[in-house]
Amino acid sequence: MARGELLRKLFLSYRRGSDDQFRTAAMEIIAEEEKKKNHRLAKDLLRILDNSTIGRAEYSTTPVNAVTPPKDRERQTALVDVRQPQHMLRDIILRGAARSVVDRIVQEYQSAEVLRVHGLQPATKLLFCGPPGCGKTLCAEVIAAELGLPLLYTRFDAVVSSYLGETAANLRRVFDYATGGRWVVFFDEFDAIGKAREDATEHGELKRVINSFLQLLDGFRAPSILIAATNHEQLLDPALWRRFDEILMFPRPSLSEIRQLLEMKLKNFPHKVAIRRATQQLKGMSHADIERVCYDAIKAAILEEKEVVSEVLFSHALNRQRERLAIVKQAGRARRY
Q: Distance between CA atoms of 207 and 164, rounded to whole angstroms?
């Protein structure tokens, strides 16, 4: 269609107050710019269009049923929490490959309409794997914040039920609710329901739950991003791996990443911590462990009315964290026996 006619449609739809007609005309203009290889302009126009129509489109970040999240039928406990993300990309340290994937996911979601013009779909189903405290939940929050979406956190303590068939029914309620809006839907501790179906220790009910989840995942078409996270990826059913567009690994931080974490967490309070030595002392700890050490040291300085975090305060905080980790490790051994 000629540019003049497209502009005419655009202005008429605006005059009539028709969001649908306005969006249709705008998308035709964006598609035309794509054909002309004006990719940057097309991307900018799409971002402006999406930001201006949030809340008025078919899917909203605040669905009609947001006031009453789904509940477990027997216990009447909420199956999801709606959280507003607080952390951006600048607040997380990711290895090169993982950072590239996250950047690509954000870019694809922001350019979803342009991709669909070319018959392509953005990556929207992600699996995060790695030990506890290494950034999986934080990364889900970061993606939500970068996209301006709320985080829909699934509470597996409420989803998993002792009643026959109720766990699968709860999962269906979560997916039905998620379909009504734009979210980053987050399933933490995913191995709670995703264990391999051939596992001899598991009963038939869990196998039915996995089958239900696979069907729900395949049928999920809402304009949202779905993220599942697990600390025990080796337990997951093989069929689950194929359902995810991207798989990100979150290992314990390297020495260079520990150094970056220390500098990030201590930058807002004066300190005399020898970063190089502290980096070696924190080797093997998770991101969350390192953050706790830094914040404990800062709190101690504030409570003791010190002007800086000294080596002594930092050392005390480090020792306290080592003691905590030893207790957790001992408790884990006790559970196994």
A: 12
pLDDT for the residue numbered 297: 97
If we measure between CA atoms, which residue out of 220, 310, 250 comes closest to residue 101? 250
Query: What fold does the segment set 64-249 form as a domain?
Result: Rossmann fold (3.40.50)
User: Thinking of the domain 255-336, which architecture would CATH place it in?
Assistant: Orthogonal Bundle (1.10)
Helices 96-110/39-53 angle, 10° precision: 70
Full-model pTM: 0.76
Domain ranges across the chain? 3-53, 64-249, 255-336
**Which is nearest to 225 in space by CA: 174, 186, 180?**
186
Least confident range from 77-86, 95-104, 188-197, 313-322: namely 188-197
